[in-house]
Amino acid sequence: MIAIENILGNIVPEECIYLEITPIMQKKINELHTFTFNAFSEQTYLLDHGNGEATVFDPGMSNVAEREYFDSFLADNGLTLVGCLLTHAHLDHVMGANWIASKYGLLPRLHPSDVPTWDMAEKSAQLYGIPMDPLPSRGEDLGDQGSIVECGKFNLEIRLAPGHCIGHVVFVCHEHEFVIGGDVLFNGSIGRTDLPGGNASTLAHSITEQLYTLPDSFEVHPGHGPSTTVGKEKAFNPYVNSEGTGMIQ
Length: 249
Ligand SMILES: [Zn+2]
Ligand SMILES: [Zn+2]
Prior knowledge:
Layout: E1 3-5, E2 11-13, E3 32-37, E4 42-48, E5 53-57, H1 64-76, E6 80-85, H2 91-94, H3 97-104, H4 115-128, E7 148-151, E8 154-160, E9 169-173, E10 178-182, E11 185-186, E12 189-190, H5 200-211, E13 219-222, E14 228-229, H6 230-236
Bound molecules: zinc ion (ZN) (2 copies).
């Protein structure tokens, strides 16, 4: 199978390329905004709390234009940024962390299991020859499996979903039926598992236990590519079988 490699995201099989032109799914809520940033087409999410405040997830803004765009979006929508959360610390998901810290005074919150990934991010950027600001200090550690992060009216449950990297988490909003999923499950694909800390069977287990156990209607908003639903991926994802027993085909 010929694969197109997205350096830190997914491996998209040739027959899945058409998915990139699938119209972006209408989200269940209007408060979750998607930005596609940096050389890896990473998706940074902004969750509007509904009270004038907002949280950024996986800040990947990498240059002046992307940062000005993000800044203007906040200003145009009257939003004050109050939180910065990470699904994981691959460089494409943290390239804007220094800027967020200095501009808004917010330190990124990561699950402690993913500190080894964080520690490698700047070195990875050097290996790829990609300019990256030094990482800031980290904020308070994200809580463990099942703990809740409050983002205004949205309560997000933290679920550990390793396999793409060692300490990846997904954020699940049960009330509004969506997941901010990072690089675990993509529309028609899954996160790559050949980077340090990656493991294919661990990833399959994470998908079946942490995502496929959610109702089919739940939306998954990934770190790369179009959004999807749990039901669609359970039915059609070629990498995790429909029985949900974790077999990667
Ligand atoms: Zn990524
Ligand atoms: Zn990643």
